[in-house]
Amino acid sequence: MGPQIAGPFFILKGGVDMTTFVDRVTLHATAGNGGDGCVSVHREKFKPLGGPDGGNGGRGGDIALVVDPDVTTLLDFHHSPHRKATDGRKGAGDFCNGADGKDLILSVPNGTVIKDVNGNVIADLVGFGTRFMAAQGGKGGLGNAGLANSKRRAPGFALLGEPGEVRTLFLELKSVADIGLVGYPSAGKSSLIAAISAARPKIADYPFTTLVPNLGVVQAGETRFTAADVPGLIPGASQGKGLGHEFLRHIERCTALVHVLDCATLETDRDPIKDFDMIEEELKLYGGLADRPRIIALNKIDIPDGKAMADIVQKTLQDSGYPVFQVSAASRAGIQELIYAMAQIIQKHRKEAKEEQVARIVLRPMAVNDLGFSVIANEDGSFSVHGEKPERWVKQTDFSNAEAIGYLADRLASYGVEKELFKKGAKSGDEVRIGTGDEAVIFDWEPSIEAGAELLASPRGEDLRISSPWRVNSLDDDIDQLSDDEIAMQWEYNVANPKNPRIDEDVH
């Protein structure tokens, strides 16, 4: 069954999927987590001093976007917006490192623009093979073998793997075409692109037949270029009317624009000059297209009335300074002249682009006085520490292991965090937050002393600088405390003092 016309719009019957072309999607990328390091000590008969042999955790898989010539739409991301890479494996004993996570490579069309959650453009993927790192996998944690040094001979802890990066990205497709065809609905843009190229778009005699941009390759002598048409430009398209506001972005990369004007329209309130002025006004409101060369194509001259109208308005349009061609997509009259005029503009543009000097890369080395972190005194009396290394170290720390906590304290102290806290006025017991947002870790700060040989003689997994109440309290939470009556019930004899299970001879 054919389409049902309802004003300028229509509804497709027969189960046709209207989302076969998607040019704007949301991508939720989650990279793989790094594997945890292993805590292991080599034990073998007749080798009492085997030493630590815990391997490192594997790296988490990355998520990368790569321009693929065989991909022309973002439809796959429309159906599956959530993508996750595999995690790295945990390390093992005998110096066995964990396996790395597998990278996830996602194919995108040429001309894909990537924006962040704030709408800022962070990447413009043009050129086949162009790669963008959407989310980076977490690093694997070091095993205790990698943490051993001259002071800490047998660490009783390992570093945790870093969590993978989680990002929300917005992908937009802007067609990479040399020539953009613009005009009123049913002006003959699809017929024209079918006449000048091998493209076979859907063509019908009613408005809004074209629902997606059509792209075709044109050959003019030795010059080859691409042309695309933008559907649905009507008054107010730049403000959201019709279909133009959805697809105007596809002509942003075009070198030149071709106005396709309908000279045989049946609407009494329209003529080629009014259509030209309307389209130019919409392009002006959209912005960024004022410097593009224009070509005017007076279409449908195969119809007698269309030929007469073209002869009337040609002189007026030529006075605007743009080249004007009378063409017919049906009879192919004037097509060759139009094609070579397009090719001439493309050749000139490509020649000028080659002469442009390549921009130099600006290197900005880190300043010598840059600490790599910052300490901020908050109004509530707490302090916030921001920096790549301190935040990463906190994520790698196993807070159930006292020795790992002591190792974190040593790293922060050697990095200068404690000195900066003293400078900002921090005192013992003040609240210190390391990180941002919900990922921040809160500490009750106690100035520490860097561990020497005398402080590293504690059993593996322990640190003498961690107060005994901390360990006792943590243990008390797991001990089931019994009442006096419950204790008395544990004895089969009636004792005088339930807390003293000594049996008196006179008590039976």
Task: Tell me what you see in this structure.
The chain is built from 12 helices and 20 strands. It has helices at residues 75-79, 144-147, 189-196, 244-247, 272-286, 304-318, 335-355, 388-396, 402-415, 417-423, 468-476, 484-488, and strands at residues 4-6, 9-11, 24-30, 63-67, 82-84, 104-108, 112-115, 121-125, 131-135, 166-173, 179-182, 214-220, 223-229, 256-262, 294-299, 324-326, 373-377, 383-387, 431-434, 441-444. Residues 1-19 and 468-476 have low confidence and may be disordered.
Write the layout of secondary structure elements.
Layout: E1 4-6, E2 9-11, E3 24-30, E4 63-67, H1 75-79, E5 82-84, E6 104-108, E7 112-115, E8 121-125, E9 131-135, H2 144-147, E10 166-173, E11 179-182, H3 189-196, E12 214-220, E13 223-229, H4 244-247, E14 256-262, H5 272-286, E15 294-299, H6 304-318, E16 324-326, H7 335-355, E17 373-377, E18 383-387, H8 388-396, H9 402-415, H10 417-423, E19 431-434, E20 441-444, H11 468-476, H12 484-488
